[in-house]
Protein: Alanine--glyoxylate aminotransferase
Amino acid sequence: KVPALTSASVPLESVRSTKHGVHRGMSSVTIPPPACMLRPLEVPFRYLFGPGPSNVPPRILAAGGRPIIGHMHSEMFGIMNDIKKGIQYAFQTSNNMTLAMSGSGHTAMECAVFNIVEPGESVLVAINGIWGERVAEIAERMGAKVHTLFKTPGGHFTNAEIEQALAKYKPVLFFLTHGESSAGLVHPMDGVGDICHKYNCLLLVDSVASLGAAPLLMDQQNIDILYTGSQKALNAPPGTAPVSFSERACHKMFNRKTKPVSYLLDMTHLSNYWGNDGKPERIYHHTGPVSGFFALRESLAILAEMGLENSWSHHTEIAEYLWKGLEDLGLKLFIKDKDLRLPSVTTIAIPEGYDWKELLAYIMKHHRIEFTGGLGPSVGMVLRIGLMGYNCNKANAAMVLAALEDALKQCRKSKA
Structure:
């Protein structure tokens, strides 16, 4: 008999069976089991009141814990079909080419650029925070001619500025962030899609931080490609990214001269995996995140039950309650225009004289609450507070205000 191996020791000899009998030889295992892997997993509880991920409700955690089924089983395809319908509702679109990427919001971001743009084509990117910076780099890496519109964090672009740039650069794609979480800004969308279409340009919009929290209407606002992430107002764990392509986008995408630079993100394969290409059989492309899709399906079900407009108004109500409380504490909101504030992620100017890292560390240590500082160009400018989805309620807003008040009292201001 082959002796059983225990996790407590490493055998000096390895034993393997062959058709000629048992062969014994020196073990090839030289690295012992790491001590950390022999201890049970420990994960602390924290209130995730930063810009995401957010705390996940028990109902969605339970959905993600359902028994695994095969990613090519008919039941899985049925769940994927449900997800597609849920995304169409959340995006307010009738686009057939609607699906969820196997990955975070960055996956959908790269999928959109890689599939729409070919090397040498002109791309226009609106940069008023980190997400425009990321898209510009992605497009540059795959060989596009990248042009940018630039504002400092908190700034937004007028339709006149956008049209002037479209006329000048004649891009095939224009990127704009709807919910710029690094600055706490929600960007006006009305008329932008119409202007893009006037110049035969596709409009790509990032709604990772805004979907479900702020009004966005893909079809009515003539958005050609829209994507989001699962981990913010949608309540689900990180790891899936809804995306949708208009017919205009599909025509550009499926009439390329060159193949997309990524095989994994190639929509000619993904459209089949999601049953969007009209073919009777779905062919294996990659193993989708089965448990992640269970959770995403449940999160979209919760949104459908609540109602999209109710979700928008609820996020606005809680945000306004938080904004007033912050101002009562003497803090300054970073986005001055109330109509441009992102309801899901509030930014406050770093209080004068305080070390923002010390404030965040104190709040984490004494209140188990995560807030964050700025990101990308907004580092050192803001503190970011996120109340979205499951976390979006007055009790949590009150907890945020109490933690900030305590930190402002206990953390010492500099002498300067």
